Amino acid sequence: MENWDDKFDYLKLTRSLYLNIDYLQFLIEKVWKITKKVDVIDFGCGYGYLGLVLMSLLPNGSSYTGVDISEELINKGKEIFKELPFNHKFILSSANNVPEKDDTFDIAICNSVLMHIPEPDAVLAEMKRITKNDGMIIACESNWNAVNALLYIDGIKKSKITDLGFLQILFERIHEKTKTDGNIGMKMPVIMARNNIKNIQARISDSVRIILADEKNEDQDSIYTSLQSDGFGEELSDEQKSKKINWFMELGFSEEEATKYLEKEIKLNEIFRNRDELNLVYAAAMTFCFGYVSK
Ligand SMILES: C[S@@+](CC[C@H](N)C(=O)[O-])C[C@H]1O[C@@H](n2cnc3c(N)ncnc32)[C@H](O)[C@@H]1O
């Protein structure tokens, strides 16, 4: 299992890529129509990023409970929330077995969590158990195929820097091997339906981040740093390159396929590092899937 203990800086730098706060406000007010105080539990909360955003948007009197398996991140969350006026609690626990009674919360939510979990159905069942009848389950999850397809970099043919076919097979094979799924976002309506969640709907985050060569300011710097934290521009040593090729081969690709793909990835990273000439458009395309509990 992946260990998130040392990922506070990564989480802090990357969350802003995926979601516009005004879009979350739109969902709360116009789509979810939350008008009264609610008790929310966040599965795989990390340091409580979603709680920080939600608590400033939800009706007064709402509460936030964050659950995570990483003690480091839970402690960070406690430290951050201690200074804030929000009614909150953090629980160190696996998302499969949360020490809370049945039917306790109005909303169970998760952000970029089910994609990392080999048994998303079990976590969904736990989210349902502790949510009240008619309460909501919300899962905000990734679609790596879409992110790669949507990425635009000016001045170079996309086929020279992104091999969509290779990536599609790569993600399928990672899913087969690890049971985790970076493309779980668009599958969530079906996964929720098989877990008997009702009135399922889905939206896609409207966040698009832009870097323009001729426009340098704090916002652009922050987007650039966030993308760097997400792996863009990475410079691989020879050892790292051969490790990557071996890993692709373990996943069933030939050495030729793996090398050809890696050349494109290296080219993309080189172009990204040339900040002064970079014109890039990036969309995180996270699916917000939600439905209602009927017991
Ligand atoms: C990508 S991070 C997302 C964190 C947070 N939701 C956010 O948006 O910042 C995934 C989180 O899931 C947590 N996690 C992974 N497996 C878990 C499990 N089985 N039970 C509880 N938390 C888990 C990790 O510790 C990590 O904090």
Short description:
By secondary structure, the chain is an alpha/beta fold. The protein has helices at 8-14, 21-31, 49-55, 71-82, 120-129, 144-150, 164-178, 188-194, 218-229, 238-250, 255-273; strands at 39-43, 63-68, 87-92, 105-111, 131-141, 152-153, 198-204, 208-211, 280-283, 287-292. It has a domain at 8-143 and 180-205 and 285-292: Rossmann fold (3-Layer(aba) Sandwich).
* Major sheet: arrangement of strands: 3-2-1-4-5-10-7
The structure class reads alpha/beta
The main pleated sheet reads as:
7 strands, mixed
> End-to-end distance, in Å?
32 Å
Number of helices: 11
Shape: globular
Mean of residue pLDDT values: 97
Instruction: Look at the structure and name the CATH superfamily of the domain at 8-143 and 180-205 and 285-292.
Output: Vaccinia Virus protein VP39
What ions, cofactors and ligands are bound?
S-adenosylmethionine
Looking at the overall shape, the CATH architecture of the domain at 8-143 and 180-205 and 285-292 is 3-Layer(aba) Sandwich
Query: Percent of residues in beta strands?
Result: 15-25%
Helix fraction? Answer: 40-55%
Low-confidence stretches are none
**Any idea of the CATH class of the domain at 8-143 and 180-205 and 285-292?**
Alpha Beta
Find the CATH topology of the domain at 8-143 and 180-205 and 285-292: Rossmann fold
